């Protein structure tokens, strides 16, 4: 795909022909994305379909094998430039276990050059909002999965990034914390902040996403608003986002298997 002005910053996230392979394993293939600022983009796909690899390429943590991508017009090859714009919550956030939550968050703030008083104000606000204030001065190695996730999320958004990548942000959270995360995503997206959200919890995507992309075997096999996708699925597959997900991933698997079989037969 080519278009005029590629990577000119008119999209919050843009990718063209993005590909990543690990040896013989093709994790992501020919991925094109154009996501406008202020969008909540739900990124769905079965286990192993390439979602994490995509997010790692878009946040500069993994170098693409081929293709190009930009965050707010900054190429992902410019790590320092991209990091300023993005926040990333991996599925299992890497935290410094020997620090307390408050120390960790102050450390993150310092990495982003957030002045001390502004950092402390933001940290206090988020610790309170996520019910972490009582645990703030305890070492992270004693934290539960949910507490680690909440601490990681605060660390990812502390520098007020304009594009936020969230990998399973609500999994492992109690209902109250999950509600807080969903409210926060909705608040962010009311402004110009873009959220790229990967989750297997389809109700979260249904509730929050403006646009949905479904990845299967590293390829984008469906894209559209949740209602568009559901309308399309009503013709035969059912009427929920889960029906859509199952249909497009099954169709693609079948098509892929047929092609593979065809190719094998041709070669035989
Ligand atoms: N560092 C790596 N080395 C080798 N193979 C890898 C590596 N990272 C990912 N893969 C492979 O790439 C493919 C895509 O993996 P990825 O983690 O991106 O999927 P995912 O959609 O995030 O899966 P899940 O929903 O289970 O988190 C898988 O086949 C995986 O085994």
TrEMBL record:
<dbReference type="GO" id="GO:0005524">
    <property type="term" value="F:ATP binding"/>
</dbReference>
<dbReference type="InterPro" id="IPR027417">
    <property type="entry name" value="P-loop_NTPase"/>
</dbReference>
<keyword id="KW-0547">Nucleotide-binding</keyword>
<dbReference type="Pfam" id="PF00005">
    <property type="entry name" value="ABC_tran"/>
</dbReference>
<dbReference type="GO" id="GO:0016887">
    <property type="term" value="F:ATP hydrolysis activity"/>
</dbReference>
<dbReference type="InterPro" id="IPR003439">
    <property type="entry name" value="ABC_transporter-like_ATP-bd"/>
</dbReference>
<keyword id="KW-0067">ATP-binding</keyword>
<feature type="domain" description="ABC transporter">
    <location>
        <begin position="13"/>
        <end position="242"/>
    </location>
</feature>
<keyword id="KW-0813">Transport</keyword>
<dbReference type="InterPro" id="IPR051782">
    <property type="entry name" value="ABC_Transporter_VariousFunc"/>
</dbReference>
<dbReference type="InterPro" id="IPR003593">
    <property type="entry name" value="AAA+_ATPase"/>
</dbReference>
<protein>
    <submittedName>
        <fullName>ABC transporter ATP-binding protein</fullName>
    </submittedName>
</protein>
């Amino acid at each position: 795909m080519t278009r005029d002005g590629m990577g000119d910053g008119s999209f919050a996230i843009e990718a063209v022909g993005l590909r990543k392979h690990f040896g013989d394993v093709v994790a992501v293939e020919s991925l094109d994305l154009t996501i406008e600022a202020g969008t909540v983009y739900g990124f769905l796909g079965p286990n192993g379909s390439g979602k994490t690899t995509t997010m790692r390429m878009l946040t500069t943590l993994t170098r693409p094998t081929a293709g190009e991508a930009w965050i707010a017009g900054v190429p992902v090859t410019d790590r320092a430039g991209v990091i300023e714009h993005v926040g990333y919550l991996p599925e299992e956030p890497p935290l410094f276990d020997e620090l307390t939550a408050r120390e960790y968050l102050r450390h993150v703030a310092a990495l982003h050059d957030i002045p001390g008083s502004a950092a402390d104000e933001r940290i206090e606000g988020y610790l309170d909002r996520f019910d972490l204030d009582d645990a703030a001065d305890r070492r992270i190695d004693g934290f539960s999965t949910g507490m680690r996730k909440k601490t990681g999320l605060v660390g990812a958004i502390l520098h007020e990034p304009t594009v936020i990548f969230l990998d399973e942000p609500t999994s492992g959270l109690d209902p109250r914390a999950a509600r807080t995360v969903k409210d926060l995503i909705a608040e962010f997206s009311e402004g110009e902040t873009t959220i790229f959200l990967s989750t297997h919890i389809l109700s979260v995507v249904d509730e929050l996403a403006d646009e949905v992309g479904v990845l299967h075997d590293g390829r984008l096999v469906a894209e559209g608003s949740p209602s568009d996708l559901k309308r399309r699925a009503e013709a035969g597959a059912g009427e929920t986002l889960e029906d859509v997900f199952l249909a497009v991933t099954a169709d693609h698997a079948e098509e892929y298997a047929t092609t593979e079989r065809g190719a094998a037969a041709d070669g035989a």
